[in-house]
Amino acid sequence: MFRGEELMAIPREKLDRGVFKHVESLLAHFWDYKAEVEKIREEIIQATPSRDNIGGGRGNLPGDPVGKMVVALAEERRLKYLAQAVDAISAVYSNLPEAKKELVRLRYWDKPQRYTWEGIALEIKISRRQALRWRNEIIYQIARRLGWM
Fold this sequence. Notes:
By secondary structure, this protein is mainly α. 66% of the residues lie in helices and 0% in strands. The longest helix has 30 residues, at 65-94.
């Protein structure tokens, strides 16, 4: 072990490059997706239909139950997908040591991106190679949590 580091879990199976990039994208947009999950949940809560027709007669809004159902199902699927991604990233991030959390913040969450991998490594006081290993480990953990490996 170097510099008080725990042993890294070296992945036995290889993650497809496209999946790796997709998980990185999810990580980079984590805060946007987290806000979107909250927005969709709020919209679903607010969209509870009101059946009251106090004045009697027909309402003046056209009814499209199939269209409403399609939109609701699409929103529900998107909500489920984004919620799973947000939960997986949150769980992995919360279990990371502080130095690895700093790597995530510097690489994926600081906007605009200020550091290269060399700059991140210098900031955390590790080698560039070690920073990339940590990145790989974090991406693999998120992919595992999502069931993609």
